């Protein structure tokens, strides 16, 4: 079987970016030991990464400036707002009402949402292989986190609805990314989107919080900086590049490997338990990802 370089590199880039994003959860757990609030941690993450995005935007220009309309900048602002700010905010809110296991299962319905949104707005064809891959990866995620599901909370519906909104907004961002990246280029689009998200987080802090952020131990700031570079700056460009190479639909399916990588990283870095059921679920998710990869490779 011949493996086209474009797709093979796209899959590798997607996996590396997803794993680096997943490392954020590990750093968050480490930071929570120092009693830092979630909004402050999100603020540190964006503040430390913001200067890098601004410098990058100064030195890079859109690849096809003659094809960019004013409305494209409006859409870019919109997708930056929903992708890395609103989706994260809905996720934080939802986690106040439901357990992390149920949150992960609901959140990873987003590959289906990506394909549906692409079909409705971009008239993208839904392939049989994509449907099969989605069913397999989602089944694997459910198996992996089944033991963590708890429905005794009276606010389960509220929490589940907020997590679904998080999945929906992130799916909208992925679809918008696939449409706008060819016009702006990977670097410029990502820098713009992350600057918008950073601005939204800063505004959120000044409106709803305004607590002192300078009284934490140095470990919090170190973790915030590492999160900004390792789990924000670098993977944000990798994800955008992967979307350009693979398309939003295929990338979203590969993204199902995210919660699996979090479990594996937690096992090695936080000494958390890795059950046999989680191992089986992880293998099933990887199988779903392979189906997407093999399908695309055979077409080229």
TrEMBL record:
Subcellular localization(s) per the UniProt record: Cell membrane
Broad class of the protein's primary localization? membrane
Record keywords: Cell membrane, Membrane, Transmembrane, Transmembrane helix
Which residue ranges does the record assign to the EamA domain? 9-145, 159-293
Top-level division of the source organism's lineage = Bacteria
Q: Show the coiled coil region(s).
A: none
GO cellular component terms, alphabetically, are: plasma membrane
- Known Pfam families for this protein? EamA
Topology with respect to the bilayer: Multi-pass membrane protein
Membrane-crossing residue ranges in chain numbering: 12-32, 38-60, 72-93, 105-122, 131-151, 157-175, 187-208, 220-243, 250-270, 276-294
Give the protein's recorded name.
Permease
Which species is the source of this protein? Urechidicola croceus
Query: Could you read off the lineage of the organism from its UniProt record?
Result: Bacteria, Pseudomonadati, Bacteroidota, Flavobacteriia, Flavobacteriales
